[in-house]
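Following up on my earlier thread - several people asked me to post the actual chain instead of describing it. Fair enough. Here it is, all 328 residues.
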Amino acid sequence: MKLALYLPTFREHVTVQELADLTDLAEELEFDSLWTLDRVVVPEASDRGELQHSFGMMKEFPLQLPVSSRGKWFQGWPILPWIAARTEKTRIGMSITDTPYRSPGVFAAECATIDHLSGGRLNVGLGAGWMPEEFAAASAADIFPRRHAHVRETIEICQGVWTNETFEYHGEFADFEPCGFGHAPVQDPHPPIFFSGLRNPEISAKRVAKYNLAGWIGIQDTPRELGEWRGAIAEELDKIGRSIDELTTCSMIWFAITDEPTDQSDQGKVSNILVGTAEQITEMLIRYKQAGLDMPLLWPPFEGVPVSKTLEDLRQLHEEIMPQVHAA
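Reply from S.P.:
Thanks for posting it. Predicted structure:
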């Protein structure tokens, strides 16, 4: 099992120095990767619990984001080159890039540039987005009903731009004649693409096979949920001659080490999965390992836990907990 840190770029209040401290520690502890979050806006409607959809369109969550509209947070995409310059080994990515907010051709070219700035360490996470209010703020309201089709076109354009000296595309959201987009990515044939949001195993398997996707990123998946989903997609992949072992299985999971035990009963997305004592987290990570989780994206709390405490927790995880997990 590898470890990734989900930098708290989206938090009630975060500073550049706090992000720097977390980035430096992840590099020191040899984490596999650092990820930022794609959040363009927080509508005032969220403060009142009046969003059109629950957080992430997950039924367990309220019609509200965990950060207020007046919170002090950062955009995730511009931070990636900064992380690249600050690190040498750790891979970088944004989980998940909502493609409808970005022109596919521009996005593909920017990814290639960041892959060069990082020396070939970019992971590309792609998803459709879920918040109509954010689509409106990103001037993409008209795309919301067709957002999943936009993801597919973005994948096709990225792979075309990355693997051809010139490329043309004629689709629903992009229509352009042959063009050159500058440097190809460092990674051959291109940066690994991670996807999110697809729960239908049959559709997921077909998407993985068609586009040769490298990984899947879930959110707050319990070991039970992860095992069920992984088993189902493994069956579908086997039908088309692919193996689940070719797909890196990840999940964004809230993380904090507590002094007192927490209720870790399975309550779906709102479970205290990796929030608990060191003993509880050790046991849970072993269960995840058995369920097939390749890499948790450790997600510090949105508020209430200072970054200094998260730094301590990450060290304890690395020094005390992970040796037990690896030995299990």
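The chain has ten helices and twelve strands. That should answer part of your original question.
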